[in-house]
Amino acid sequence: QDPANLLIISTDDERLGSHEQLGCLGRLLGVRVESVIGPERLASRIAALPGRCILIDTPGAGSRDTEAAAYYRALRERCAALTTMLVLPASAQSGVIDDAVAHFGAGVSDCCTLTRIDEAVSIGGVLSALVRSRLPVAYVCEGARIPEDLRPARAHQLVARAVELSRGAQQRVDDDLLARRYGSGIHAAA
């Protein structure tokens, strides 16, 4: 995307320093950043920029925040051309992912981005939730560096990562089981 055609809008008036953090990202990427608070102002700002790619940073919401889900659903109805993306941390518990997808998936989001893949001990739960909801994964992020750690999602890579993590978890379970059955001295020679 051409930085001249890209705009980042911050709507987060809840997190301390969120506007400044996005301003730093904008400078790093060479992209303009604006702050717009309120659904009416946001809808009119989006309408005033047809054909522009606008990334909207919203306040984070809890996985069961029905008020936030209703707000985003209403924003989508106001801005028909808006494509919304749910950001899910792959390191979250499976139940949290299920709740987030239930509240912010269909009807609210068109796709999702999986973050914190590098911190996850398992991604099978998040992938299962996304398959059940039919919410496509557009991007994955495996670190804190933007844009270096952000890339388009590839199904075969996600499945391979899930298998790799599963095998690693099975090895840890086997080691723990041996230690419990035969005592902690089992690893003394290792």
How does this model look, in words?
- There is one protein chain.
- The protein has 190 residues and is of the alpha/beta class.
- It has helices spanning 18-29, 39-47, 66-78, 94-104, 124-133, 155-182; strands at residues 6-10, 32-35, 53-57, 85-89, 111-115, 137-141, 150-152.
- It has a 4-stranded mixed β-sheet, covered by helices on one side. Strands 2-1-3 form a 3-stranded parallel β-sheet, covered by helices on one side.
- α4 (94-104) runs parallel beside α5 (124-133).
- The N and C termini lie far apart (51 Å).
- The model is unreliable at 186-190 (pLDDT under 50).
- Specify the oligomeric state: single chain
> What amount of the residues lies in strands?
15-25%
- Helical fraction equals 40-55%
Rg is 20 Å
Outline the low-pLDDT stretches.
186-190
- What's the mean pLDDT score? 82
The separation of the N and C termini measures: 51 Å
* Strand order in space, largest sheet: 4-5-6-7
Q: Tally of extended strands?
A: 7
Backbone structural class: alpha/beta
Order of helices and strands, N to C? EHEHEHEHEHEEH
Question: What overall form do the CA principal axes indicate?
Answer: globular
> Helix count, per DSSP?
6
Largest sheet: 4 strands, mixed
